[in-house]
Design brief:
The chain is α/β, with parallel strands linked by helices. It has two domains: 181 residues, Rossmann fold; 147 residues, Rossmann fold, CATH 3.40.50. It is built from 13 helices and 13 strands. One of its GO terms (biological process) is lipopolysaccharide biosynthetic process. Keywords: Transferase.
């Protein structure tokens, strides 16, 4: 019998922000003496369709080589990590508390928890990029305790007539911190996350950087991502594929500015990490950024689909050293208030 079982929709092989938060919860709870399991499932449908056969073979391969286990993050040795074919009670095991972590996992967690266990729903995004709005909203009505990681997600859940608690994401200060003086950084070094998902809107980020490059030839972009782009970057873009934690920390620290142009985020985690490492933040004006990106206080904001405005905001920071340092300093101070002690204590009160 486990104390907590977290249910994830797929493999942990590739770095994903939402998965990272779940793994951190698992680690922290284990350190407190709880027995914790993390169940991964591709939820495959058995049929003779080529797509089903392909997924089935993929499931078998990961079962053999254990590639469903995250290697990009250190999990506590006592966390039970499992890989199961379907999101069904017989595969999820016995637990005092089951935690759904995405809309695809909510129904199975609600059905598995039933009357004998507690069901929690950790809502990390408005996941209409993987399901319809109707499907996603329907999961908020299940017999689960809803927890949203941001205020805007909490408001969406409440607007459907369902209760929802708010526990902001926590950040690990031991992983991301300032190693290079904010004051001495090259203002033309700019960091960006590459992600192929359309909602991440990397095209706008790249276009904005091209505009700035024309007026500031010394600009250098430090780009990183968990997937490689299918096209060549300009020579002034340095790409880092799946950087290790220490490498990513130093990449952030080598940048004076961090740019993120996402159209939607549950909570923009990379923007927080950049602030932890002393970058000045230029971010799209979306709810998932405004949890910590406050215009003129901790960041400069721009409309998500306006590379021209994004470029202008970047140039403000390149030309105004005082503003860049002030934004970096205040942003760093703010994100360091999002502690794991606070998040875990709030979580345990709801279980």
């Amino acid at each position: 019998m486990f104390d907590f079982t977290f249910v994830l929709p797929g493999s942990g092989a590739v770095p994903v922000g939402g998965f990272k938060i779940v793994y951190e919860y698992a680690n922290r709870l284990t350190l407190l003496g709880y027995k914790v399991s993390v169940v991964h499932s591709p939820n495959i449908e058995l049929s003779l369709k080529p797509s089903s056969i392909k997924r089935g073979l993929g499931y078998i391969k990961r079962s053999i080589d254990k590639s469903y286990i995250p290697r990009w993050l250190e999990l506590h040795s006592e966390v039970d990590v499992r890989w199961v074919p379907k999101l069904q009670a017989k595969y999820l095991g016995n637990s005092k508390v089951f935690v759904a972590t995405a809309w695809q996992t909510a129904r199975s967690v609600a059905e598995t928890a039933g009357k004998d266990a507690k069901g929690i729903y950790l809502i990390q995004d408005y996941e209409t990029w993987s399901g319809s709005a109707q499907e996603v909203k329907a999961t908020y009505a299940f017999d689960l305790t809803n927890i949203a990681i941001s205020r805007w997600l909490q408001e969406i859940v409440i607007s459907t007539g369902n209760d929802c608690h708010y526990i902001p994401n926590a950040l690990e200060s031991k992983d991301f911190y300032i190693t290079q003086s904010i004051e001495d950084r090259n203002p033309c070094n700019i960091g960006v996350l590459f992600h192929p998902r359309e909602s991440k809107n990397f095209a706008t980020s790249l276009e904005a950087l091209k505009i700035v490059k024309q007026r500031h030839p010394m600009l250098r972009a430090k780009v990183f991502g968990a997937t490689r782009p299918e096209y060549a970057f300009p020579e002034w873009v340095d790409f880092h594929f799946r950087p290790a934690k220490a490498e990513l920390r130093e990449l952030y620290n080598s940048c004076a500015i961090f740019l993120t142009a996402s159209k939607t985020e549950g909570w923009g985690l990379t923007g927080c990490e950049a602030l932890q490492c002393g970058c000045a933040l230029v971010a799209s004006n979306i709810p998932g950024h405004r949890e910590y990106a406050i215009e003129g206080e901790t960041a400069l904001l721009f409309p998500a689909l306006s590379p021209q405005t994004a470029a202008s905001r970047i140039e403000e920071l390149i030309s105004d050293r005082t503003l860049r340092i002030e934004l970096s300093t205040r942003g760093n101070q703010l994100v360091n208030t999002f502690t794991w002690d606070r998040a875990i204590n709030s979580f345990l009160k709801l279980t």
